[in-house]
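Our consortium's second objective concerns turning raw sequence data into structural hypotheses that experimental partners can test. To show how far this objective has progressed, the report includes one record in full. It was chosen at random from the queue rather than selected for favorable results. The single chain below, 434 residues long, was entered without modification.
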Amino acid sequence: MIRNGIVDSISILFLTAALFGSAALAQTSQPEQGIGFKEFIQATIEGNIGLVSQKYNVEIADAAISVAALAPDPTFTIGYSSYELSRFILPHSVVAAVNYTLENSDKRKARVRVAEADKALAAAQVNEYMKTLRFDAANAYIEAVKTRSIVARRKYTLDIFERLGQTNSQPPLKVEERAQLRLELARLRGDFHQSASDLEISNRNLNFYLGESSLNKQGVYANASLEVPAVQFVEADLQGLAAEYRPDIASAKSAMQSAQSKSELAQKNRSLDYGFALGVTHTQPMWSIPDAGGSYFPGSYPMSNALIATVTVPIPFSLLQDGDLRGPAATAVQAEMRLKELQSKARIEVGQAAMKYNLSLKQVSAYREGTADADVLMEDTLKKFAGQENGFPDIVYYIRTANEIHFAYLEALASSAKALISVYQVSGQWEFNF
């Protein structure tokens, strides 16, 4: 009976999350829909709120280009003189003029170049945010697959011991064995519920990345395998890809170009802008009225209209200092140094990531052999227990050992998958799957 109820169950494979599916997790609350890796990444890109928010920066920067291209607006001045401060009574005057600031055309062109560089920087930052989001979401997905696999393994082990605790189990357990079984069941149930809680957290983390996606409304769980085919990388090729496609390097290049254009604008801003005004003055007529002595004073003023033209030239005391030049120039040099720093960092990270991934493959290979041996020993122990050739403590020992190997194997698989994702990330590659 033990052999039929327990030993045959050991043939279940624990290497894929799909095989660990709904039957093993029947007692845990599960989201409604399993989601594959590609589908999850695509839904994340389409619905993530942070990414949607970032994309508006490009639209804002595009609007700034139109603003930068604007010339100064002309102004209209009108005035009326109606109160004479002198002791003489003089005629009233009306002044109307149009004022215009003549701006250096190079200054406006420089502003447009700055705005265009800022738009390119905003687009590069959106691209960097999107790629970083993809890799963060991929790591969260891998963690969810691993956690789901751990829950399935714990549930499977718990089922074995619960069957052993049934009253009609054969061979019957001794009193001290039943006491040990109760302790083991308490430990296993606690571990199972803890892992089930971790799984719920992992699933909710997936929903966080989905944002406004329609999949987020019903909830999802990661439905994929941690078994990823090994990929061979040539480090020199990865270095070339990183230099061309790595998003932080692309953003740094755009930031350097933006800083350089702002330094150029600072130079253009030192050119003088001249103000011109053209208008007319209208003076009302006024006729003298004789005083008590019969004299006409101060005299008569006929109506008059006069054109006025003025030129305003700034006195450039501000050009005596050069802070407006040194600041942007230093920022441009700083941006260039930042680019060189990231390029150097990329070369180091590519080598480290490739080395870490290769080591993870060796670790996975070692644990894969261990899981097969552990399952054989566990099956053999259960057979011997059914034949009363060994005791209950042997079952506890070998099942614990098998679980430790399986959990270490799942951890190694997840670490290897994350290491592979890291290689893609540090080399600036876009498409990846498992």
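The partners drew two points from this record. The chain has a mean pLDDT of 83. The domain at 2-426 is CATH 1.20.1600.10 (Outer membrane efflux proteins (OEP)). Both points have been shared with the crystallography group to help prioritize constructs.
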